[in-house]
Amino acid sequence: MASSSRLAGLVTLAVVVAVACTLPAASRAQLQVGFYNTSCPNAETLVRQAVASAFATNPGIAAGLIRLHFHDCFVNGCDASVLLFSPNGTAERDSPPNFPSLRGFEVIDAAKAAIERNCSRTVSCADILAFAARDSVNLTGNVLYQVPAGRRDGNVSNFSDAFTLPGPNLTAVELVGNFSLKNMTAEEMVVLSGSHTIGRSHCASFLFKNRERLANGTISPAYQALLAALCPPTSGQLTLVTTAIDVSTPTVLDNNYYKLLQLNLGLHFSDDQLIRDATLLPFVNAFAANETLWKERFVAAMIKMGNIEVLTGNRGEIRLNCSAVNPRSSSTSSSSSDGLIETIFPVADGEIVSTS
Ligand code: HEM
Ligand SMILES: *[C@@H]1O[C@H](CO)[C@@H](O)[C@H](O)[C@H]1NC(C)=O
Ligand SMILES: *[C@@H]1O[C@H](CO)[C@@H](O)[C@H](O)[C@H]1NC(C)=O
Ligand SMILES: *[C@@H]1O[C@H](CO)[C@@H](O)[C@H](O)[C@H]1NC(C)=O
Ligand SMILES: *[C@@H]1O[C@H](CO)[C@@H](O)[C@H](O)[C@H]1NC(C)=O
Ligand SMILES: *[C@@H]1O[C@H](CO)[C@@H](O)[C@H](O)[C@H]1NC(C)=O
Ligand SMILES: *[C@@H]1O[C@H](CO)[C@@H](O)[C@H](O)[C@H]1NC(C)=O
Ligand SMILES: *[C@@H]1O[C@H](CO)[C@@H](O)[C@H](O)[C@H]1NC(C)=O
Ligand SMILES: *[C@@H]1O[C@H](CO)[C@@H](O)[C@H](O)[C@H]1NC(C)=O
Ligand SMILES: *[C@@H]1O[C@H](CO)[C@@H](O)[C@H](O)[C@H]1NC(C)=O
Ligand SMILES: *[C@@H]1O[C@H](CO)[C@@H](O)[C@H](O)[C@H]1NC(C)=O
Ligand SMILES: *[C@@H]1O[C@H](CO)[C@@H](O)[C@H](O)[C@H]1NC(C)=O
Ligand SMILES: *[C@@H]1O[C@H](CO)[C@@H](O)[C@H](O)[C@H]1NC(C)=O
């Protein structure tokens, strides 16, 4: 039978645990510019070097890296879940919205390898994704912004969760609704769609809807004919053929995307929807008329997107390999106090010890 003093001790311990548990919650989602100033001062430089080196061989990689950050943030938050590899093909990255179109994984791996050599177990893969997207914007758009950091990496990556990503067949109302689920406004949705001023798309993402748009008069007939000629006629052969999303300046982050929409030269049905909706059209017109305005809003929206459902403090972990959850033994996720409490106070997994 427990003595009353032991019981009192347990109560005190429980209070301490409860207080400790509220601390990370209070500082939750507080990302900071220069998060690695002292712990890994070269982190951002090393990412920039990896991105610049990949970009020198393949400028398209910049678009891939921006999209990788978006697809990470919209599924399970910006926690690098999109990078996790699954031996049985059941991770986010294996899902049709991501596979085979998502690219840039090897650039993140190269940046991570360089960083691990310089300061190990310090910089999260989720932050590397955010830095790499920023560097890609710099390289293609002549814009520089600072990225608040301090994200930590998650350990869940689920094939079916990727179906919640907005797809190219969505209507304006659905696009706005899907962004609002992430607390992003209609304007921010239009602003970030401007990313489609760079990069490529696979035939399967636009070919069939564009046939319908032709009948509707919502696509330039010459553009539709060009795309139909480019893409193989049968769906089975569509897998690998791609085209630039912005036919005018496919490697420059400019406002031409919006100008093309005005000319019925939007590639995806979802792109075209931005000019068919009375609330969205004024944003398109404003960004087409003023590139400075768009870039200003774009940077702000990228930073906001980078804050979606982030893990901070002692939640999540700093992955050692961006493609894999840390092995239990080398996990950096459990603090020493968790271990202490488990020793003093054995509990079933997920009862008292779980702080996340
Ligand atoms: C508004 C909803 C959005 C839809 C429906 C959408 C849809 C698509 C589709 C279908 C592709 C082509 C994929 C392929 O077949 O290869 C694509 C590419 C791309 N998307 Fe989006 N997207 C959206 C928003 C965004 C956002 C918010 C960003 C970034 C912040 C973004 C960045 C990109 C980039 C950079 C590419 C080119 C990727 C590459 O070249 O590898 N998109 N998007
Ligand atoms: C890191 O250094 C930069 C430049 O000196 C400064 O702006 C930033 O606030 C610092 N961040 C932190 C978290 O120390
Ligand atoms: C696939 O592999 C993961 C580990 O990566 C495992 O957790 C999951 O149960 C496996 N799923 C199937 C359907 O085999
Ligand atoms: C990290 O890189 C910087 C700059 O290249 C160098 O000065 C520093 O010594 C490196 N630190 C480690 C631990 O490798
Ligand atoms: C891109 O980043 C580099 C390094 O931070 C910086 O010197 C350069 O000014 C940036 N480019 C632009 C256009 O801001
Ligand atoms: C993935 O998510 C779906 C839908 O939320 C769920 O039914 C399924 O059990 C999840 N799979 C895994 C392996 O967690
Ligand atoms: C999000 O898009 C899906 C289609 O992928 C649609 O069914 C759903 O209604 C949208 N959600 C909202 C809240 O608009
Ligand atoms: C959106 O905001 C609400 C209210 O602040 C919050 O409960 C929810 O978690 C947020 N969702 C995302 C995806 O950030
Ligand atoms: C979009 O709709 C077309 C039919 O117009 C269909 O063939 C295609 O598979 C759909 N794409 C997606 C990603 O749902
Ligand atoms: C065609 O127009 C109708 C009516 O405006 C609209 O509901 C439909 O979404 C359009 N389809 C395409 C593919 O543009
Ligand atoms: C374009 O937008 C910028 C940034 O908001 C603003 O300062 C400038 O006055 C605008 N230019 C015009 C011609 O409206
Ligand atoms: C995933 O993270 C949670 C919370 O951080 C932890 O309890 C769980 O053990 C982790 N799972 C794996 C497989 O690492
Ligand atoms: C990282 O993990 C992936 C997936 O398990 C594995 O294929 C790869 O070899 C690992 N990379 C390193 C450098 O260990």
Automatic annotation (TrEMBL):
Keywords: Calcium, Disulfide bond, Glycoprotein, Heme, Hydrogen peroxide, Iron, Metal-binding, Oxidoreductase, Peroxidase, Pyrrolidone carboxylic acid, Signal. Pfam families: peroxidase (PF00141). Substrate binds at P166. Binds 2 calcium ions per subunit. Binds 1 heme b (iron(II)-protoporphyrin IX) group per subunit. The keyword Signal applies. Its EC number is 1.11.1.7. Heme b binds at H196. Its cofactor is Ca(2+); heme b. The record marks R67 as: Transition state stabilizer. It is an enzyme of class 1 (oxidoreductase). Belongs to the peroxidase family. Ascorbate peroxidase subfamily. This is Peroxidase 1. It comes from Zizania palustris.
